[in-house]
Design brief:
The complex is a heterodimer of chains A (574) and B (294). Chain A has 574 residues and is of the alpha/beta class. Chain B has helices at 12-16, 21-36, 65-71, 108-125, 151-161, 171-180, 197-209, 222-225, 248-272, 286-293; strands at residues 48-53, 75-79, 86-92, 129-135, 139-146, 186-191, 213-220, 233-236, 243-246, 276-281. The chains are: A alpha/beta (574), B alpha/beta (294). Chain A binds chain B through residues 28-44, 46-47, 51, 54, 574, and chain B through 96, 99, 192, 194, 224, 227, 229-230, 232-240, 242-246, 249-255, 257-259, 262.
Chain lengths: 574, 294
């Protein structure tokens, strides 16, 4: 048996009061003369046994009365059927309120989040003082605290641009409650139970933790949203996501508020809309859809940089593949060939050693063909103040790079180890060792561990070679990071270095939020180990595993009976 | 005079406030005799004086049948008319008699004194020789039975002179009393009988054996008949050091039964030995108590 107010059990000490009073009854009674003492003694002798029994009975009844009252004050919880349970055993409860972007969808005239909040409020309202409660929202943060504060948090919870991984959240919640030494542990999942919100793996729910999931609305509306918007080659590619099979919708692209293009696209399709010629610099645009039931995914911003083509010089020692790639890029207007006209010097030089004389702002240094020249190149690099230098030969392996698209996995058969610099300046690696590094010093240097030749690496023969060279001379050589994408409210944040803007991060909601289809209950049971329940069943099932009724009324009734019996014994047995 | 105005039927404590023993007793007796219009006590121990020849009209019951058998002549017995009865009133003056259960009531001793004085006055008025003996653990006062004038005043003085007892009424005193009552007559014992019943009965039975008519007046305060008091109290016997702590409410019922059983035992034992027994509570009007004795 458990008690709501176990501290009240200290009052059981009071049960000893009748016995103590009986034992300590040493007070001096008033004295009076009474001549017929012989009659009194005779009467007492006759009543001694009866009075002894009576006193013992009264002692037991009064002690029992105090015990019953103290137990009632401690509010004992007795097992009860679900319907009769009014209170529950102390429970560790983690409430997951999924206020991710998808919860903003309007169903039957009201946002799904309103329904979820109401259910969450119901769960919190049922908690008692002895419970330990956490609230987990879409941001994944577990908030502990008193019921009132958590209720306020639920009331103020708005639709979040964040996606909630339900599997991870349930696992986190289950671990939280499992660590609590309380009789019961429950996780309430109040979510629209998107299929895409469930991870591929199964949540690890410890034994003894009960997971209840609110059943989603039966028919989520068809939805379309902007999943991606990226600028490449003077056009923005807009990916439309949402309910498969939904009708196509009009995608409108605006740059600085001015509409620059429009196209139709259905979920799963992508449209490319050309951007007008724009002056060099950073630009921000947006792709929008006509409003539907889920507004959060109807707009996505994008950013890109319009840069002048880098002027590149590539001596003969750079190799034929580099020369060919530059020719292609020059033909496309992506680079300018230094020395081909104009008074301006090269922006980027590609060769076996840093070009100090030509005045190039950035040197892309590749290993010399002759290994004997490596030392000479290293001295030149050191003279430029850079920390990086060529080391000994490295082992073959695939390229691993996160910031340069398309080159991951391309095999490197020959290379030099790059040594001496900081890890943060590594752009690409082979076998975990730096392969492409950038020296951020005054004389900018990009150092490659392999020559751009098929004898060293398969990269020149790969389709990604020309884009790689483009990125190398137009982006990496200038120290510009790519436009990064992150989850959050739609906006663009620029990264700067000195007075230069060197990158941007575009925020938007996760494209998976646009797929509103709910996961089948069987899948939820399997992946989350949860019971999927409709609203009434959910309300009845929460805390029902430890459903208890307040036994204090029963004890008080018993105490009343004992009191009546005591009164009867005290009066009728005189 | 109506019953309402009769002093003998008023509350004893109220009556006691009228004056001393004499006044109270006279008032009680006046009322009492006015109520019954005849002498309540019949003499049986009248003294034989001489024989005379039977004359027609004499009651046959006074014929001396032995003389008839011896002389074949009829004689009737001649009796002394002045001395009808020799009565001796024994008043218990032990310490337990000086107790009352409530301030508004008379002590058993005060009640007994007034009852004895009234009884003596009645007896003396009908020319019965009446005496008094007071006793506790010893015989305190002895007023021989006389019928001459001033006897009642002597009896009353004997009562007044006897202080409240300092000890218990001992059986030894009763035995001593029997020796003092050489001539047979009426013996009235006024006591709360808080002594050993068997020993007391032995003495009374002896008196009865000597030819006395014995009347026992068992005085009891109402508070002795029904137990009451504070929730817990130590009751102490005024005649001994004995005491007992009791809860009156717990013992009241059994105590009442014990008292009633004791009274019944006294009544049965007295009846068995030809002794008249009367239980008198001290809130009983004197007239009613006298009526019991008549």
């Amino acid at each position: 048996m458990t008690f709501l107010h176990p501290l009240a059990l200290v009052g059981l000490v009071a049960a000893a009061i009748p016995a103590l009073l009986h034992l300590l009854e040493r007070r001096v009674p008033p004295e009076a003369e009474f001549p017929p003492l012989r009659y009194l003694s005779e009467a007492e002798r006759q009543s001694a046994r009866r009075l002894k029994l009576r006193h013992l009975l009264l002692l037991i009844l009064r002690t029992l009365l105090i015990v019953l009252i103290v137990l009632a004050a401690a509010r004992p919880l007795v097992p009860a059927r679900t319907g009769g349970a009014t209170v529950h055993a102390p429970t560790a409860l983690a409430l997951i309120l999924d206020n991710s972007a998808s919860s903003g969808v309007v169903v039957d005239g009201r946002p799904v989040l309103d329904r979820l909040r109401a259910v969450a409020r119901g769960s919190l309202a049922r908690t008692a003082a002895g419970d330990r409660v956490w609230l987990i929202l879409a941001d994944g943060v577990a908030r502990g605290g008193v019921r009132e504060r958590l209720l306020a948090t639920v009331d103020s919870a708005a639709v979040s641009p964040r996606r909630l991984d339900l599997s991870a959240a349930v696992q986190q919640a289950a671990r939280l409650v499992d660590a609590e030494p309380l009789p019961a542990r429950e996780v309430h999942v109040v979510s629209d139970l998107q299929r895409t919100a469930l991870g591929a793996g199964r949540a690890d729910v410890p034994r003894g933790v009960r997971v209840l999931a609110l059943a989603p609305p039966p028919q989520p509306p068809a939805n379309r949203g902007i999943g991606t918007a990226r600028v490449t080659d003077g056009a923005v590619t807009v990916g439309v996501v949402g309910t498969p099979g939904a009708a196509a919708a009009a995608v409108t692209v605006r740059v600085r508020g001015r509409e620059v293009g429009r196209a139709l696209a259905a979920p799963g399709a992508a449209v490319s809309i050309a951007l007008p010629p724009l002056a060099p610099g950073w630009w921000v645009g947006e792709a929008t859809l006509d409003p539907d039931e889920l507004r959060a995914d109807d707009r996505r911003v994008f950013a890109w940089r319009v840069a002048p083509p880098a002027r590149v010089t590539a001596p003969q020692d750079a190799g034929p593949f580099v020369a060919a790639a530059l020719a292609v890029l020059a033909e496309g207007g992506k680079v300018g060939i230094a020395g081909a006209g104009g008074a301006r010097g090269p922006d980027v030089s590609i060769g076996e050693r840093p070009d100090r004389r030509g005045g190039a702002r950035t040197n892309v240094v590749i290993p010399p063909v002759d290994a004997a020249l490596v030392g000479q190149v290293n001295r030149a690099l050191a003279a430029g103040g850079g920390p990086w230098r060529f080391g000994g030969p490295g082992t073959p392996g695939p390229i691993a790079a996160s910031s340069v698209a398309g080159i991951d996995g391309i095999q490197v058969t020959r290379r030099y180890r790059l040594e001496g610099g900081e890890d943060s300046t590594v752009v690409a690696r082979v076998n975990g060792e730096p392969w492409l590094v950038r020296d951020p010093g005054e004389g900018r240097v990009l150092l490659l561990g392999s020559r751009l030749d098929t004898a060293w690496t398969a990269l020149p023969a790969a389709p990604a070679f020309v884009p790689f060279v483009d990125a190398l001379v137009n982006r990496l050589a200038r120290g510009e990071a790519p436009v990064a994408e992150a989850e959050g409210a739609p906006r663009v944040e620029f990264r700067t270095r000195g007075t230069d803007t060197v990158g941007a991060t575009v925020y938007g909601i996760d494209a998976r939020e646009s797929e509103l289809a709910a996961a089948p209950p069987a899948l939820v049971r399997r992946l989350l180990g949860a019971e999927v329940l409709e609203d009434p069943a959910f309300a009845a099932a929460r805390f029902a595993g430890t459903g208890r009724a307040d036994g204090s009324w029963l004890l008080l009734a018993l105490a009343l009976v004992v009191a009546v019996v005591e009164l009867g014994v005290a009066t009728l047995t005189r | 005079m109506t019953d309402v105005q009769r002093v003998d039927l008023l509350d004893p404590a109220e009556v006691a406030r009228l004056g001393g023993i004499e006044i109270v007793a006279q008032g009680v007796v006046e009322g009492f005799l006015a109520g019954i219009h005849r002498s309540p006590f019949r003499g049986f121990s009248v003294e034989f004086t001489e024989h005379r020849a039977y004359q027609p009209g004499d009651e046959p019951r006074y014929l001396d049948w032995k003389m008839l058998a011896r002389s074949d002549r009829l004689f009737v017995k001649q009796f002394e008319e002045e001395t009808n009865l020799r009565a001796m009133i024994l008043v218990d003056a032990s310490r337990s008699m000086a107790w009352r259960g409530a301030p508004a009531r008379l002590t058993k001793r005060a009640y007994g004194d007034r009852l004895a004085a009234a009884l003596a006055l009645i007896l003396l008025r009908q020319r019965d020789a009446t005496g008094l003996i007071t006793f506790d653990e010893a015989v305190r006062e002895v007023v021989p039975a006389r019928v001459k004038s001033g006897q009642w005043a002597r009896l009353v003085r004997g009562l007044v002179r006897t202080p409240d007892g300092r000890g218990t009424a001992a059986q030894a005193a009763l035995v001593r009393l029997t020796a003092l009552l050489a001539r047979r007559g009426l013996v009235v014992l006024v006591s709360d009988l808080l002594f050993d019943r068997d020993l007391a009965l032995t003495a009374l039975r002896y008196l009865r054996h000597r030819g006395h008519q014995v009347i026992v007046v068992h005085l009891m305060d109402p508070a002795e008949a029904e137990l009451s008091g504070p929730p817990e109290v130590r009751f102490r016997d005024p005649e001994s050091a004995a005491s007992v702590v009791v809860r009156p409410r717990e013992l009241a019922r059994v105590y009442g039964e014990t008292v009633r059983r004791e009274i019944a035992a006294w009544r049965t034992a007295c009846r068995r030995h030809g002794i008249a027994y009367h239980h008198v509570l001290t809130d009983m009007p004197f007239g009613m108590a006298l009526r019991l004795l008549a």
